[in-house]
Design goal:
heterodimer, A: mainly beta, five-stranded mixed barrel, 9 strands, B: alpha/beta, Peroxisomal Thiolase, Chain A, domain 1, two-stranded antiparallel sheet, globular
Amino acid sequence: MTQVPVAEGLFTEGDAPQLIGSKCGDCGIVTFPVQDSCPRCASIAMGEHLLASRGTLWAWTTQSFPPPVPPYVGPVGKDFVPFGVGFVDLGDVKVEARLTTTDPDVLNAAVRDNTPLDLVVVPVGTDDDGNEIVSYAFTVVKEA
Amino acid sequence: MAMDVAIVGVGIHPFGRHPGVSGIQMGAIAIRKALADAGVAWKDIEFAFGGSYEVDNPDAVVALMGLTGIPFTDVYNGCATAASALTMAANTIRLGDHRLGIAVGMDKHPPGAFSADPRDYACPLWYGQVGEFLTTKFFGMKINKYMLDHDISHQTLARVVNKNLRNGALNENAFRRKPMTEEQILESPMLNYPLTQYMFCSPDEGAAALVLCPAEDAHQYTDKPVYLRATTVRTRRLGAFEVHSTWLPEEQTVAPTVDASRAAYEMAGIGPEDVDVIQLQDTDAGAEIIHLAENGFCADGDQERIYAEGETEIGGRLPVNTDGGLIANGEPIGASGLRQVHEVVLQLRGEAGERQVPNTPKVGYTQLYGAPGTAGVSILTV
């Protein structure tokens, strides 16, 4: 099955993907995804900025019911699979992301213990041509 | 000091599900009740502001009321729509443009979580495609973080719902009037951890209206005027933890509710310690808990004790959502904030019947909050 990203310019391809954000050339704020103007100082000197692929969990919940279609592209009804959602702190910005677990014990422990989370690319649905739509998510790093 | 504005009439169309009754018709019914309450006729009304999400032209209600040619301005401002309609109606009087006006809100939502195109909220389309463009998920994240940071239990979430449904049972205009045990609430299906199905309000249908005039005119219409001491609306600042955000900066600041609240206390010259009856936006059980602190009524974390000891009950020190709030009334967006004011007016007049706050409350407070990070506060006194 061919994989297609849910949007162009969201994350880099390859074995070590990174989220693509932007950084203000005037005040230094980092945004995700790329935006053309600065939400802090209104500058338009925004440049592309690759984000760290490891961070810590700042806040989380679960999405335990199917989101409305459209815009949601994932399976619904009995095929719906609940997923986690959270804000992951990457050091210079916090990004909202799907999480690969919905286990409250794992996620609360990750917040409490500052457990690292890593960026991964995961399937989120199927398009009209049968391609697998992929997007970014974060997964709690298992202790060695 | 801004000129005081008085509320001299209130009316409500019951909230809930009303097949065959349009949003506009509900608006007209609420207006007629408010006019009767004030003892005035539609032809006496000099201007109106009308709020709605689903109804494109609330001003079309003039077809049901009378084509008198008045300036009628439609308002949509997310969950703060009603606060915006009220603020602009009050300011129209303060400017001296007109003396007798109406603020009305009406809505008729389909069942289920609100849905929209993310791009209309300055969010990318992919944000919705991957299943993150949901207000309920934000509410889950915000209260979950708050519970971890401030040691709030799941049981306190259930206590909020239990209280609001009990209050709703005393309110003939409420949508949900059947009390539920804390166990039933906690054991209902999880929607967005830690929030279960019965911890959320539902979009529904309803309308509410107010008749306003300058304070100096109030006794022409009523011997129990309620004065609007402050109305404020604020939007999110950079660093606030807000709904529909693909990212947040490292810097953090307070929610727009805190900004709107502080501005309202300043405008009114009244502090949270003076407030006798409180209406807070309880889109979900967690929101009421957080908003109790964001509006200055307690310190973060005190809610665990406050709810356990019944302080937010009708007979308690901090009566919150005495008409059942959004949890019992649902949320017809355009009408929701005017429903809050309607309840506070009844309470301050001593006309709230079985749910009357004892010892003649003199100061009331209402707060709205919603997507994409908008808050409205009003402070009312006798």
